[in-house]
Amino acid sequence: MEQVAPQGDARRAIPRTDVLLALPAVEAARTRLAEHVIVGVIRDVTARARRGELAAAAVAEVVTAALDAAVLSAQTPVLNATGVVVHTNLGRAPLSEAAVDAVVQAAGYVDVELDLASGTRSRRGIGARAALLAACPAAEDALAVNNGAAALVLATTALAAGREVIVSRGELVEIGAGFRLPDLIASTGARLREVGTTNRTHLADYADVIGPDTGCLLKVHPSNFRVEGFTSAVGVRELSSLAADRDLPLVVDLGSGLLAPDPILPDEPDAATALGHGADLVTASGDKLLGGPQAGLLLGRADLVTRLSKHPLARAVRMDKLALAALEATLAGPTAPVARYLHADPDRLRARTEALAAAVGGAVIEHDGRVGGGGAPGVPLRGFAVRLPEAVARPLRTGSPAVLPRLHDGAALLDLRCVPESADAALTAAVVAAMHGI
Ligand SMILES: *Cc1c(COP(=O)(O)O)cnc(C)c1O
User: Fold this and answer.
1) Ligand 1 atom 1 nearest Cα
2) Domain range for residue 37?
3) Out of 174-183, 254-263, 308-317, which region has the weakest mean confidence (pLDDT)?
């Protein structure tokens, strides 16, 4: 409601909403913004004028500027200068160009559940399934769902609801943000049967508790921590022969999503090896080391994958067409950014870092990047960083483009490992601007 201002009040000069809505700049903004957003901007600006914070004559101009600055998404692109490859707070894996193109292509109507040749309905996700099987031939069949947690929930629900899931106490991990694997499994209606101790679990511990109530054996990769010292865990090979003897499925939660071994991450489990060692089903995330969109991958025995895909819960955790397209393109396209950043050439990193330091006036130091995303916690990724005063961090984060440095030892460190080389010039300009501001 617009209030009627008293006679002679400067507020009478404030343009009315309908007048502002007819401005050419507002007309132009309609191609970009929803009407309620435009009206909201106009109301905000006129309210400021009524409070005397703004001259009436400036209202039209301020409305125009505010509409120009209005953003459609609260998610701001960030240049990741932390050296952490799979950065959870930055949305984990950045998509490859091929995946981005595929997302754009899938944005309109698309034959996600239609066979164009026959004109009849087809199975959702057949492209992603084929791409997964091509990338991981050790799997008989594959299914992709919303995320890694959903893959695990679907597996334990379909294989062990109302029954027991046997898992080692050394593998009952918290995935992040207070989200605990045991709670997740308990929420499926399966009962967790914990065996062994935090540091040592033996094959006999599993064998002793297998009974008529056992639904499946579960092995979880404790991805975000390491137990050192007097430790022992049962490998997939041993566990799978026990599971086979007792006619039970062995599910292995790999977490990180490597489909094949990566020599620079020797302790990171991968799907091909786990399946080769007899796992019946493996689960993994799509947006960690695989470098794709948020997804949960289920790979393994054809009868189990069929059982899971027919379970009613599968519908509740199904992937959307955009993520399916991105997953397929990540698998079939050129090496995704995550793998490129993990394997970044140190000489090239050093040259880029020296160029940045020369332009902004900081010191080059040796700096270890990290895998991140809960993966390979102890593995340093040898590289370099430019060291700047810590005070530059805030202007960097709030600048354009936003740049996230690593804060360490009272300094802001800029590690170029996860910055696309094509963004070096923009990053340099952002750092120069931020340094001026401190
Ligand atoms: C990350 C992770 C999960 C969860 O996967 P999301 O894709 O985040 O849902 C489950 N298990 C392990 C071992 C993980 O590392």
Assistant:
1) 255
2) 10-69
3) 174-183
